[in-house]
Amino acid sequence: MKTYAINSATGKPFDKYSFLDKTGAVAGEIQQGVAGDLGMEVTYARDANNNAYLYVLYADKNSPAGQAGVTRGWEITAINGDNNISYDGSNGPNVKKVINAVYNDASSTFTFLKPDKSSQTSTLTKTVYDINPILFDTIYSVAGKNVGYFVFNTFSNVFNTNGPTLTKSELDRVFNKFSAAGISDIIVDLRYNGGGSVATAEYIDSLIAPASVTGKVMYSYLYNDKLSAVASQVGLDKQVLFNGGGSLNLNHAFFIGTGNTASASELTLNNLKPYLDIKLVGDTTYGKPVGFFSFSISDFPNGVEKQLADLYAINFETRNANNQGGYFNGIVPDQLASDFVNVPWGNPNDDNLAKIFKYISTGTFTRLSAQERMISDKSLRLSIPSTMRSLRFNGMVDYKVSGKIKALIDKNLRKSQ
Fold this sequence. Notes:
This protein has two domains: about 35-130, Pdz3 Domain (Roll), CATH 2.30.42.10; about 135-335 and about 395-415, Alpha-Beta Complex (2-enoyl-CoA Hydratase, Chain A, domain 1), CATH 3.90.226. The protein is about 25% helix and about 30% strand. It has eleven helices and 25 strands. The strands form eight sheets. The protein has a six-stranded mixed β-sheet with strand order 11-12-15-19-20-23, with helices on both faces. The chain is globular, with a radius of gyration of 22 Å. It starts with 5 loop residues before the first strand and ends with a helix.
């Protein structure tokens, strides 16, 4: 069905987003905030001479990897005692071996080389854990100003069926710390964040925006003619308003993005553009100004419901209060920066942070290129794109409206029985 509507300009289907989830993994990850994996993502990276290495991009603090102390910037030198893991192309046997060990196998043993040159060997086993989407947070002093920084990795919901989640408590913790420090600038690192719950995007925007936004438009929905015709019956919102702003008094809000920054991440920064000085640093984002209402597809053998899959088909587009949106080709950064994956979280040597600090200090970005930096600092490693699959969901889901639609469907099903 996705292939029916073809974009004449590209010759490819318009819809590269919709999918079926037969396992319920997306709802578990985004709505309930749980995952069942090793909890780390890896990538191959190159040095200035194009030699390739395997590095940990990140690890969730609550995951098997995080509990073993694994974190960004650790090099993987062997898997299951095999050190023949050199890069051999995106479809090479070594790469497939790594993918299976990190993402598919129930348990694998990894030998890590840490930044201090010490070694650690750990056997990691897939386990169900509560996702902690904040990988790192700190406060810097830059040119006499306090600057808050946090790495946000997935938009797991701030509320689930049990009430407030770990995501909400972690966001509250970080922003209370920022408020107490009186930060004048904030840096939101979304470089690997593929999106998730729109409710979480709304929550973060309310924490970052000034108090003056209360009652103003955060974003608007755009529906096709079919959904527009039943919008009032289903209870589809036309706009989302700010219930209130945060306690911060910010000069700038900087976002760090890459080609992996998608959907709810893009929504978050786009919503704030009418109300704050927003700067995007890094690379052009993924390009997904559209989202899903989730639908459960079921069969009823012998009258008993059997869930078959969750359908995530594109249902809406979003625009901010200035009617800005339509970034299907991604949001272009105000300043290009490189993702040196062996630099630990929060290290000022991170190219994104270095350029943001320069802007806070001088009002302009530095122009040093990735290759220039790699030549001057031989230790830097630049990610080789598309060598691994992302661990996390890519998209944004409106569970509030999804719940309304499910209730309406269930009501009509009961009437027909």
